[in-house]
Structures are given as structure tokens and as C-alpha cells.
Design a protein that fits this description.
This protein has helices spanning about 5-30, 35-55, 60-75, 80-95, 125-130, 140-155, 160-165, 195-205, 210, 230-245, 255-265, 270-280, 285, 290-305; strands spanning about 170, 175-180, 190. With about 300 residues, the chain is mostly helical.
């Protein structure tokens, strides 16, 4: 083995040790499994890049990171590049905090500004109603999917939050859902309407009892084949399929239902703080995106109905 290969192997071992320490740090902070997985994957890509360059995590400069940022932009779409680069920023903040690096190289680098926008075509209330009615409720699978769709629209949950719901998290008598370890490790209580409560209760009492297995644990929504906790990809495919079945030409996804929930709340008079609490946003400015849609609604209505167009 050449000296260069030996040095590269040593660099790789040291870099991977730091990544392992970082993952343990996130676990101590009780970050969600999905968040840890996302960070870990992004940083594995970063470490592969460093390995090719023969570089160590602790010897990286801001110029090196700027070059890496350019590499990401050339290889991935903007949002993916942003996500991967953000993981690097968080990683180096951790390394500085535990004194692995003396100077944080990201201090001298500007992270790409992530564009804040909403889907161009938010579902209307009638389109959501058509979507909710799409599953065949004469079947067990249809009842499961109807309960999932109703829950998404009523609560505005993220898909990971819905998949991680436990049986006792949904209190259909009092009309709320407990979200444990949501984004950023935050817990919150989210109100849900009577319709969502009805379908959750029906699913829980008539369908879940048929598919539950010892390995199902106390997860609320279960897959039909093995009784495992339902997977994100299963939910995503089901929502997309029902969108097509309902004849909706707009993009339909679980996140679109989250946007629809927030937008319809705002249109019907809910306050910014109320919507922020329901969606679990850390910053109010994130929720303020929805005021843009309601303002556009007012402009369109004015242009359509005012006599002095």
C-alpha cells in the first residue's frame, strides 16, 4: 500500500469517527430519527468528497467549503444542495462547541439563501373534499386511507409525524392529536375536527384490530401486508394515487394537504399565531408565507368584483 493510500485511510477513519460523535450528539439532543438520518446521509456525501480530495474535516478552510458548495450546486438541484450544505454548517458548529476545531470555517461562508415559496396551486376546499372522498370506504384499505387523508387535512401534520403517531396520541373524544418529537424534537398538541375523529375512530376500531401484530407496537397506522408501522413511501404513493383518481390536475401530496390546511385556516379567519402552533413552526416568519396567499385572494376578488376595475 502506498503512503498516499495509507494517509487517506487514516483521514477516512478520523473523519468517520467525528461523524459518529456527531450522530451521538444528535441522539442526546433527542432529534428525530428522520432528522438524524438526513444529517448523516448529507455528511456521508461530504466525507466522500473530502476523501477524494485527501482532506480531513479539521483541516478544511472556508475556501474549501465554498468549493464544496459549488460542487453541490453543479451536481444537485438547489434544494438538495441547500440541505446538504446546511448539514455541514451544523456539523462544524458542533465541532467548534466540543473544541475539535479552533475556528469554524463556516463563519466566513454565506449559506445559500433558501427561497421561500408556496406551491403555485394550493388545493381549493372543493378539491380537497373530492380528494377525501376518493378512497373506497367499503374496503379496509379505503378506511385506512380515508383516515390518513382526513388526518392530514385536519391537522396539517408532516408525513413523518403522521407515520410516528401512536394509538393513544389521537384523542378522538377531546378532538386533538399529540405530536411527540416533531421537527426539531418539539412536542405539541394539534386540534382535529369531528370528521377526522370519526374516521380515525372507525379505522382504529374496525380495521387496525385485523392487521395488528406483536411487532406492530402501539403505532396507529399500520401497513396491510405485515402489520408494520406504515411507511412514508406507502403514504406518499396512496395520496398521489387518490389525487389522480379524483381528477385533480394539480400536484397532490401529503405536504400539499398541509399547505391546504394552513391556507384554508387563514382564509377563514385563523390568526397567524394559531396556524403557527398547529403546524409546529419554530419561527413566525415561516407561517407568514401563508399571508401571501390570502393577500392574493383579496386582490383577485377585488379585481373580479369591484365595479371600478
Amino acid at each position: 500500500m502506498s503512503a498516499n493510500n495509507t494517509n487517506n485511510n487514516i483521514c477516512d477513519e478520523e473523519n468517520n469517527k467525528l461523524l459518529k460523535d456527531f450522530r451521538e450528539h444528535l441522539q442526546i439532543l433527542k432529534r428525530s430519527r428522520e432528522s438524524i438520518r438526513t444529517f448523516y446521509y448529507a455528511l456521508k456525501i461530504y466525507l466522500r468528497y473530502l476523501s477524494v480530495k485527501g482532506m480531513q474535516v479539521v483541516g478544511v478552510s472556508s475556501d474549501d467549503l465554498e468549493a464544496y458548495q459549488g460542487y453541490l450546486l453543479g451536481k444537485y438541484c438547489f434544494h438538495t444542495a441547500y440541505s446538504y450544505m446546511r448539514a455541514v454548517f451544523v456539523f462544524y458548529r458542533f465541532l467548534k462547541r466540543v473544541s475539535i476545531v479552533v475556528h469554524n470555517p463556516t463563519d466566513f461562508l454565506t449559506l445559500l439563501k433558501r427561497p421561500r415559496h408556496l406551491p403555485r396551486n394550493v388545493l381549493t376546499e372543493s378539491e380537497v373534499a373530492t380528494l377525501l372522498n376518493a378512497p373506497d370506504i367499503k374496503t379496509d384499505k379505503g378506511i385506512l386511507h380515508r383516515a390518513i387523508l382526513e388526518t392530514f387535512y385536519s391537522s396539517g401534520l408532516r408525513i413523518s409525524e403522521l407515520c410516528n403517531l401512536k394509538v393513544n396520541d389521537a384523542d378522538t373524544a377531546k378532538g386533538y392529536i399529540r405530536v411527540n418529537q416533531g421537527k426539531g424534537g418539539k412536542d405539541r398538541v394539534v386540534p382535529i375536527g369531528n370528521s377526522a375523529c370519526l374516521w380515525i375512530r372507525l379505522y382504529r376500531e374496525t380495521v387496525r384490530t385485523k392487521v395488528v401484530r406483536a411487532k406492530s407496537g402501539d403505532f396507529l397506522f399500520l401497513g396491510f401486508s405485515l402489520g408494520n408501522p406504515i411507511q412514508r413511501v406507502t403514504v406518499m404513493e396512496a395520496v398521489k394515487t387518490y389525487g389522480k383518481q379524483a381528477g385533480i390536475t394539480k400536484k397532490v401530496s401529503s405536504h400539499i394537504l398541509r399547505h391546504a390546511c394552513a391556507t384554508h385556516l387563514m382564509r377563514n379567519g385563523a390568526s397567524l399565531l394559531d396556524v403557527r402552533g398547529i403546524l409546529g413552526h419554530v419561527f413566525l416568519k415561516t407561517t407568514q408565507r401563508y399571508t401571501h396567499i390570502t393577500q392574493l385572494d383579496l386582490i383577485k376578488a377585488h379585481r373580479k368584483f369591484h365595479p371600478r376595475k
